[in-house]
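# step 3/5: fold
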Amino acid sequence: SSGINAEWPLRPGYIAGRENQKPILNPANIRICFADLLEVRKVHQVFLERLEHKQAIWSADQIIGDTFLKLAQRFDCYSNYINNYPSTITIYRKNINENPAFWAFVEHFNRQNSNRTKFFELLSRPMNRIESLKTLVSSLIFYTPDKHTDHTILQQCETEYTKLSEFIEKSRTQYNHLTELKVLESKVIDCPILTDKKRGIIAQAEVYRVKGIIDESGAPHTFPQDKKFPHFQKYKLHLFDDAIMLSRVSYEIQPYDSQKREIENFVNTYALSAIRVKNAKKQQQFLLYTPKSVYLFEFETLEGMAEWVDHINDAIKNAPKLLVPNVYISPQKTM
């Protein structure tokens, strides 16, 4: 039922090479990657046996929802496995590239199971199984008459399965956000640490900063509106659920290389509680007020500008109110 063989991840991990008796993965990594895996398998094995028993004595009055409900009551055994999953992927990627014994083991496993699921896919099999069972319960509800005793029990099951499914989705979303933040940290020169908090990226956009003096009406005093002039500078805006980060784009041409390379340089970050936005006189422009200065940004289209102003206003409304208006002191400090 679980799609997991109890021995494949554990036994080879401890008794890797018989010559030196060194494990493929150290015990700590095995515990992280396969936390409570045997318990998960045991729970699913009992579930399968109960289903087989129900099938053997099946009748029109038989109920099956109680079996699914008993499985749902043991979903706590998934907690460590789901919470450790991001670390599991990190351990896998590191060892597949740096640990020859682990690489050889995975290759051997995949060859031995050429017509079945690969090793990497098996790491996520327990989570995928929950989604399959949730779909199965929904189908059973659809085909079970409303007045049948099983209908209400199956609806209870669906609620429990949905809760675990949402927990898995939340974990997946947090992992994806963390990955995006790490990519951004490595991409932006002098970028502050973004991964010190559980923050998510709401939106990102390329804009042009219009440089010049801005009067109280929001009208900038600039040169003619042409991006060939130096008063236009390309920026990128990175909107998080607790802050906004500004970076400036420049270009570099390497010798013997005809292509320009885009370079993104960190400018500043501001807590959402410390900023506000306002439409400028020109339709495709908006003003960003921060504790340090006022920025005038221009989008390529009116729709792009309007969408971004909405994003920022929604984020400001939902952001936690911080006591310190500008929480980012310098590029060297964390967010």
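# step 4/5: annotate
The chain has ten helices and ten strands.
# step 5/5: archive (pending)
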